[in-house]
Amino acid sequence: MANVQQRGSKFQLRVKNKLLSKPFFFTFDTEVEARNYGEQLESLLARGIVPQELLAPTQTPGDLLLLEVVRAYTQQSAVLTDSDDALLDVVIQDKPVIGLRVSMLTFRWVEGYVKWLKSPEMHLVPSTIRKRIGVLGRVLDWHINSTTLDGATPLANPLRLLPRGYSSYSKTDSELVEAKRDVARDQRLSPQDDARILAALAGIKRDDRERALTTDPAFTLLYSLIVDTGLRLFEAFRLRSDMIDLQRNIINVEGSKGHRGASKPRVVPIKPSLREPLRAWCAGRVGLIFPFWDGSKEQRPKATTKLSARFKTLFDYAAVPNFTEHDLRHEATCRWFELRNERGWMFSELEICRIMGWSDTKMVLRYASLRGEDLSARFG
User: Fold this and answer.
1) What pLDDT does 49 receive?
2) Which of 264, 298, 332, 366 could form a disulfide with 230 if both were Cys (CB 3.0 to 4.6 A apart)?
3) Domain 60-183, what fold?
Protein backbone atom coordinates (compact mmCIF):
# COMPACT_ATOMS: atom_id res chain seq x y z
CA MET A 1 0.00 0.00 0.00
CA ALA A 2 1.49 3.33 -1.10
CA ASN A 3 0.80 6.53 0.74
CA VAL A 4 2.00 10.04 -0.11
CA GLN A 5 2.14 12.83 2.47
CA GLN A 6 3.34 16.38 2.11
CA ARG A 7 6.29 17.23 4.37
CA GLY A 8 6.97 20.93 4.14
CA SER A 9 7.66 21.72 0.47
CA LYS A 10 8.38 18.06 -0.44
CA PHE A 11 6.42 14.83 -0.63
CA GLN A 12 7.15 11.62 1.24
CA LEU A 13 6.25 8.24 -0.24
CA ARG A 14 5.57 5.35 2.13
CA VAL A 15 5.07 1.84 0.77
CA LYS A 16 4.14 -1.08 3.01
CA ASN A 17 4.07 -4.62 1.61
CA LYS A 18 4.50 -8.13 2.99
CA LEU A 19 7.41 -8.68 0.59
CA LEU A 20 9.33 -5.85 2.24
CA SER A 21 11.04 -6.38 5.59
CA LYS A 22 10.02 -2.88 6.66
CA PRO A 23 8.07 0.06 5.19
CA PHE A 24 9.89 1.87 2.38
CA PHE A 25 10.24 5.67 2.65
CA PHE A 26 11.50 8.12 0.06
CA THR A 27 11.13 11.86 -0.48
CA PHE A 28 10.37 13.58 -3.79
CA ASP A 29 10.26 17.18 -4.93
CA THR A 30 6.73 16.88 -6.37
CA GLU A 31 3.62 14.88 -5.56
CA VAL A 32 3.45 13.60 -9.17
CA GLU A 33 6.94 12.08 -8.91
CA ALA A 34 6.09 10.44 -5.60
CA ARG A 35 2.83 8.92 -6.85
CA ASN A 36 4.34 7.73 -10.16
CA TYR A 37 7.20 5.97 -8.38
CA GLY A 38 4.77 4.50 -5.86
CA GLU A 39 2.56 3.09 -8.62
CA GLN A 40 5.56 1.54 -10.39
CA LEU A 41 6.82 -0.03 -7.17
CA GLU A 42 3.40 -1.39 -6.25
CA SER A 43 3.02 -2.89 -9.74
CA LEU A 44 6.30 -4.77 -9.33
CA LEU A 45 5.43 -5.95 -5.83
CA ALA A 46 2.00 -7.17 -7.03
CA ARG A 47 3.85 -9.48 -9.45
CA GLY A 48 6.10 -10.72 -6.69
CA ILE A 49 9.08 -8.71 -7.89
CA VAL A 50 11.17 -6.83 -5.34
CA PRO A 51 13.65 -4.32 -6.78
CA GLN A 52 17.25 -5.36 -6.12
CA GLU A 53 17.99 -2.31 -4.00
CA LEU A 54 15.16 -3.26 -1.62
CA LEU A 55 16.02 -6.94 -1.21
CA ALA A 56 18.48 -6.29 1.61
CA PRO A 57 19.56 -3.23 3.53
CA THR A 58 22.51 -1.96 1.51
CA GLN A 59 22.52 1.47 3.07
CA THR A 60 25.20 2.36 5.56
CA PRO A 61 24.04 4.18 8.72
CA GLY A 62 25.18 7.45 7.14
CA ASP A 63 23.07 6.88 4.01
CA LEU A 64 19.84 6.75 5.99
CA LEU A 65 17.43 9.63 5.81
CA LEU A 66 17.20 11.47 9.12
CA LEU A 67 13.45 10.92 8.82
CA GLU A 68 14.01 7.14 8.90
CA VAL A 69 16.22 7.48 11.97
CA VAL A 70 13.54 9.58 13.70
CA ARG A 71 10.87 6.99 12.88
CA ALA A 72 13.06 4.19 14.24
CA TYR A 73 13.78 6.21 17.39
CA THR A 74 10.09 6.84 18.08
CA GLN A 75 9.32 3.13 17.62
CA GLN A 76 12.26 1.62 19.48
CA SER A 77 13.65 4.08 22.02
CA ALA A 78 12.81 3.21 25.59
CA VAL A 79 13.26 6.80 26.78
CA LEU A 80 10.95 8.59 24.31
CA THR A 81 8.69 11.05 26.12
CA ASP A 82 5.32 12.34 24.92
CA SER A 83 6.74 15.85 24.57
CA ASP A 84 9.68 14.63 22.45
CA ASP A 85 7.34 12.56 20.29
CA ALA A 86 5.16 15.60 19.60
CA LEU A 87 8.16 17.87 18.99
CA LEU A 88 9.72 15.42 16.51
CA ASP A 89 6.52 15.53 14.44
CA VAL A 90 7.18 19.26 14.07
CA VAL A 91 10.95 19.08 13.55
CA ILE A 92 10.83 16.57 10.69
CA GLN A 93 8.81 19.11 8.72
CA ASP A 94 11.45 21.85 9.06
CA LYS A 95 12.78 22.71 5.59
CA PRO A 96 16.46 21.98 6.32
CA VAL A 97 15.50 18.56 7.75
CA ILE A 98 13.39 17.35 4.80
CA GLY A 99 15.42 14.97 2.66
CA LEU A 100 18.46 15.20 4.94
CA ARG A 101 20.65 12.12 5.22
CA VAL A 102 22.65 11.35 8.34
CA SER A 103 25.90 11.71 6.39
CA MET A 104 24.90 15.31 5.58
CA LEU A 105 24.32 16.19 9.24
CA THR A 106 27.62 17.96 9.84
CA PHE A 107 28.60 20.74 12.19
CA ARG A 108 28.27 23.18 9.28
CA TRP A 109 24.72 21.93 8.67
CA VAL A 110 23.87 22.32 12.36
CA GLU A 111 25.14 25.92 12.32
CA GLY A 112 23.01 26.58 9.24
CA TYR A 113 19.98 24.99 10.87
CA VAL A 114 20.32 27.21 13.94
CA LYS A 115 20.69 30.24 11.66
CA TRP A 116 17.49 29.22 9.83
CA LEU A 117 15.63 28.89 13.13
CA LYS A 118 16.59 32.50 13.86
CA SER A 119 15.73 33.72 10.35
CA PRO A 120 12.73 35.95 9.56
CA GLU A 121 10.93 32.83 8.34
CA MET A 122 11.03 31.16 11.77
CA HIS A 123 12.24 33.80 14.28
CA LEU A 124 12.07 31.47 17.26
CA VAL A 125 12.95 32.33 20.84
CA PRO A 126 16.20 30.81 22.18
CA SER A 127 14.43 28.28 24.43
CA THR A 128 12.50 26.87 21.46
CA ILE A 129 15.70 26.64 19.41
CA ARG A 130 17.36 24.69 22.22
CA LYS A 131 14.41 22.29 22.36
CA ARG A 132 14.69 21.52 18.63
CA ILE A 133 18.45 21.00 18.80
CA GLY A 134 18.07 18.99 21.99
CA VAL A 135 15.52 16.53 20.61
CA LEU A 136 17.52 15.98 17.41
CA GLY A 137 20.63 15.53 19.54
CA ARG A 138 18.93 12.74 21.49
CA VAL A 139 17.82 11.05 18.27
CA LEU A 140 21.34 11.14 16.83
CA ASP A 141 22.87 9.97 20.12
CA TRP A 142 20.58 6.93 19.98
CA HIS A 143 21.39 6.28 16.30
CA ILE A 144 25.15 6.53 16.84
CA ASN A 145 25.04 4.25 19.86
CA SER A 146 22.82 1.75 18.03
CA THR A 147 25.03 1.52 14.95
CA THR A 148 28.49 1.62 16.52
CA LEU A 149 30.15 -1.80 16.57
CA ASP A 150 31.35 -3.23 19.85
CA GLY A 151 34.82 -1.93 20.66
CA ALA A 152 34.65 0.85 18.04
CA THR A 153 34.86 4.54 18.90
CA PRO A 154 31.48 6.26 18.43
CA LEU A 155 31.34 9.16 15.99
CA ALA A 156 30.97 12.64 17.41
CA ASN A 157 27.45 14.04 17.45
CA PRO A 158 27.66 17.46 15.73
CA LEU A 159 24.51 18.58 17.53
CA ARG A 160 26.49 18.32 20.78
CA LEU A 161 29.37 20.47 19.53
CA LEU A 162 27.57 23.81 19.48
CA PRO A 163 29.16 26.44 21.74
CA ARG A 164 27.46 27.70 24.86
CA GLY A 165 24.97 30.45 24.06
CA TYR A 166 24.41 29.26 20.49
CA SER A 167 20.67 29.89 20.72
CA SER A 168 21.06 33.57 21.64
CA TYR A 169 20.76 36.14 18.88
CA SER A 170 24.16 37.61 17.99
CA LYS A 171 24.78 41.09 16.59
CA THR A 172 24.86 39.58 13.10
CA ASP A 173 21.52 37.84 13.67
CA SER A 174 20.02 41.07 15.01
CA GLU A 175 20.90 42.87 11.79
CA LEU A 176 18.42 40.62 9.97
CA VAL A 177 15.65 40.23 12.56
CA GLU A 178 14.70 41.64 15.91
CA ALA A 179 16.60 39.74 18.58
CA LYS A 180 14.44 37.45 20.68
CA ARG A 181 15.33 36.53 24.22
CA ASP A 182 14.18 33.97 26.74
CA VAL A 183 11.45 35.49 28.86
CA ALA A 184 12.11 35.18 32.59
CA ARG A 185 8.85 35.03 34.49
CA ASP A 186 8.98 37.22 37.58
CA GLN A 187 5.31 37.63 38.40
CA ARG A 188 3.86 37.93 41.90
CA LEU A 189 0.34 38.43 43.15
CA SER A 190 -0.16 41.54 45.22
CA PRO A 191 -2.66 41.30 48.11
CA GLN A 192 -5.10 43.24 45.91
CA ASP A 193 -4.59 40.81 43.01
CA ASP A 194 -5.20 37.86 45.31
CA ALA A 195 -8.38 39.43 46.68
CA ARG A 196 -9.77 40.11 43.17
CA ILE A 197 -9.06 36.53 42.09
CA LEU A 198 -10.81 35.08 45.14
CA ALA A 199 -13.75 37.42 44.58
CA ALA A 200 -14.04 36.30 40.95
CA LEU A 201 -13.95 32.64 42.01
CA ALA A 202 -16.70 33.36 44.55
CA GLY A 203 -18.94 34.72 41.80
CA ILE A 204 -18.73 38.40 42.77
CA LYS A 205 -19.43 40.54 39.71
CA ARG A 206 -17.13 43.34 38.65
CA ASP A 207 -18.84 46.73 38.35
CA ASP A 208 -17.76 47.07 34.72
CA ARG A 209 -18.95 43.61 33.63
CA GLU A 210 -22.45 42.42 32.76
CA ARG A 211 -22.14 39.16 34.65
CA ALA A 212 -19.98 37.34 37.15
CA LEU A 213 -17.92 34.24 36.46
CA THR A 214 -19.80 30.99 37.01
CA THR A 215 -18.86 29.56 40.38
CA ASP A 216 -17.23 26.14 40.39
CA PRO A 217 -16.13 24.69 43.75
CA ALA A 218 -13.81 22.18 42.04
CA PHE A 219 -11.98 24.89 40.10
CA THR A 220 -11.79 27.12 43.19
CA LEU A 221 -10.16 24.32 45.17
CA LEU A 222 -7.79 23.59 42.28
CA TYR A 223 -6.65 27.22 42.33
CA SER A 224 -6.11 27.18 46.11
CA LEU A 225 -4.28 23.88 45.91
CA ILE A 226 -1.81 25.10 43.26
CA VAL A 227 -1.12 28.54 44.77
CA ASP A 228 -0.64 27.14 48.29
CA THR A 229 1.39 24.03 47.43
CA GLY A 230 3.19 24.76 44.16
CA LEU A 231 1.87 21.65 42.43
CA ARG A 232 2.13 21.70 38.65
CA LEU A 233 -1.20 21.76 36.83
CA PHE A 234 -1.12 18.09 35.81
CA GLU A 235 0.10 17.04 39.25
CA ALA A 236 -2.91 18.82 40.75
CA PHE A 237 -5.74 17.64 38.52
CA ARG A 238 -4.49 14.03 38.55
CA LEU A 239 -4.67 13.79 42.36
CA ARG A 240 -6.49 10.77 43.75
CA SER A 241 -8.11 10.49 47.15
CA ASP A 242 -5.54 7.91 48.29
CA MET A 243 -2.72 10.42 47.64
CA ILE A 244 -4.05 12.87 50.25
CA ASP A 245 -3.20 11.90 53.83
CA LEU A 246 -5.18 14.17 56.15
CA GLN A 247 -3.96 12.31 59.22
CA ARG A 248 -0.36 13.38 58.60
CA ASN A 249 -1.38 16.43 56.51
CA ILE A 250 0.68 15.53 53.46
CA ILE A 251 0.08 14.97 49.76
CA ASN A 252 1.95 12.11 48.07
CA VAL A 253 2.51 13.70 44.67
CA GLU A 254 3.26 11.73 41.53
CA GLY A 255 5.71 14.25 40.08
CA SER A 256 5.43 14.85 36.33
CA LYS A 257 8.94 16.20 35.70
CA GLY A 258 11.17 13.20 36.30
CA HIS A 259 14.11 12.38 34.01
CA ARG A 260 12.91 11.61 30.46
CA GLY A 261 9.28 11.61 31.56
CA ALA A 262 9.65 9.21 34.49
CA SER A 263 7.44 9.74 37.53
CA LYS A 264 9.20 11.61 40.33
CA PRO A 265 7.31 11.08 43.61
CA ARG A 266 7.58 13.65 46.40
CA VAL A 267 5.77 14.60 49.58
CA VAL A 268 4.18 18.05 49.94
CA PRO A 269 2.93 19.34 53.32
CA ILE A 270 -0.63 20.66 53.51
CA LYS A 271 -0.91 24.16 54.97
CA PRO A 272 -3.49 24.65 57.74
CA SER A 273 -5.64 26.85 55.47
CA LEU A 274 -6.04 23.95 53.01
CA ARG A 275 -6.76 21.14 55.45
CA GLU A 276 -10.48 21.64 56.09
CA PRO A 277 -11.36 22.47 52.44
CA LEU A 278 -9.56 19.30 51.32
CA ARG A 279 -11.15 17.22 54.09
CA ALA A 280 -14.64 18.38 53.13
CA TRP A 281 -14.02 17.93 49.40
CA CYS A 282 -12.45 14.47 49.64
CA ALA A 283 -15.04 13.04 52.02
CA GLY A 284 -16.58 10.00 50.34
CA ARG A 285 -14.59 10.44 47.13
CA VAL A 286 -12.69 7.53 45.58
CA GLY A 287 -10.19 7.86 42.73
CA LEU A 288 -9.62 11.21 41.04
CA ILE A 289 -10.78 14.06 43.26
CA PHE A 290 -11.29 16.53 40.40
CA PRO A 291 -13.70 16.14 37.46
CA PHE A 292 -11.48 17.76 34.83
CA TRP A 293 -9.83 14.60 33.47
CA ASP A 294 -10.98 11.02 32.88
CA GLY A 295 -7.57 9.53 33.68
CA SER A 296 -6.69 8.50 30.11
CA LYS A 297 -3.44 9.42 28.40
CA GLU A 298 -5.33 10.53 25.29
CA GLN A 299 -7.45 13.09 27.15
CA ARG A 300 -4.63 14.65 29.17
CA PRO A 301 -3.63 17.32 26.57
CA LYS A 302 -7.27 18.36 26.15
CA ALA A 303 -7.77 18.67 29.91
CA THR A 304 -4.56 20.69 30.28
CA THR A 305 -5.53 23.06 27.46
CA LYS A 306 -9.04 23.63 28.82
CA LEU A 307 -7.83 24.31 32.35
CA SER A 308 -5.09 26.66 31.15
CA ALA A 309 -7.76 28.60 29.23
CA ARG A 310 -9.97 28.76 32.34
CA PHE A 311 -7.11 30.19 34.38
CA LYS A 312 -6.50 32.81 31.68
CA THR A 313 -10.18 33.77 31.77
CA LEU A 314 -10.02 33.99 35.57
CA PHE A 315 -6.96 36.25 35.60
CA ASP A 316 -8.39 38.46 32.87
CA TYR A 317 -11.65 38.85 34.80
CA ALA A 318 -9.75 39.61 38.02
CA ALA A 319 -7.71 42.28 36.18
CA VAL A 320 -4.39 40.54 36.77
CA PRO A 321 -2.71 41.13 33.39
CA ASN A 322 -0.01 38.93 31.86
CA PHE A 323 -0.46 36.29 34.55
CA THR A 324 -0.53 32.57 33.72
CA GLU A 325 -1.34 29.38 35.56
CA HIS A 326 2.35 28.49 35.76
CA ASP A 327 3.02 31.82 37.48
CA LEU A 328 1.09 30.38 40.42
CA ARG A 329 4.01 28.00 40.93
CA HIS A 330 6.34 31.00 41.24
CA GLU A 331 3.89 32.56 43.69
CA ALA A 332 3.70 29.34 45.71
CA THR A 333 7.51 29.15 45.91
CA CYS A 334 7.66 32.63 47.39
CA ARG A 335 4.89 31.82 49.86
CA TRP A 336 6.87 28.83 51.13
CA PHE A 337 9.92 31.05 51.58
CA GLU A 338 7.95 33.73 53.43
CA LEU A 339 6.45 31.39 56.04
CA ARG A 340 7.69 32.16 59.56
CA ASN A 341 7.05 30.94 63.07
CA GLU A 342 8.35 31.97 66.49
CA ARG A 343 11.72 30.35 65.71
CA GLY A 344 12.22 32.17 62.42
CA TRP A 345 11.93 30.96 58.84
CA MET A 346 9.82 27.80 58.72
CA PHE A 347 11.52 26.02 55.80
CA SER A 348 15.09 25.98 54.53
CA GLU A 349 16.08 26.35 50.90
CA LEU A 350 16.77 22.61 50.65
CA GLU A 351 13.39 21.73 52.16
CA ILE A 352 11.59 24.00 49.70
CA CYS A 353 13.46 22.31 46.84
CA ARG A 354 12.08 19.00 48.13
CA ILE A 355 8.56 20.41 48.34
CA MET A 356 8.71 21.82 44.81
CA GLY A 357 10.31 18.69 43.34
CA TRP A 358 13.67 20.18 42.32
CA SER A 359 16.95 18.28 42.30
CA ASP A 360 18.99 21.41 41.58
CA THR A 361 18.99 24.31 44.04
CA LYS A 362 19.58 26.68 41.11
CA MET A 363 15.84 26.43 40.47
CA VAL A 364 15.32 28.56 43.59
CA LEU A 365 16.89 31.53 41.82
CA ARG A 366 14.53 31.00 38.90
CA TYR A 367 11.32 30.73 40.92
CA ALA A 368 11.85 32.85 44.05
CA SER A 369 10.44 36.17 42.84
CA LEU A 370 10.73 37.93 46.18
CA ARG A 371 9.32 41.45 46.26
CA GLY A 372 11.70 44.25 47.12
CA GLU A 373 9.14 45.94 49.35
CA ASP A 374 8.72 42.73 51.37
CA LEU A 375 12.46 42.46 51.88
CA SER A 376 12.70 46.12 52.87
CA ALA A 377 9.85 45.74 55.38
CA ARG A 378 11.99 43.38 57.48
CA PHE A 379 14.04 46.35 58.66
CA GLY A 380 10.96 47.49 60.60
Assistant:
1) 74
2) 332
3) DNA polymerase; domain 1 (1.10.150)
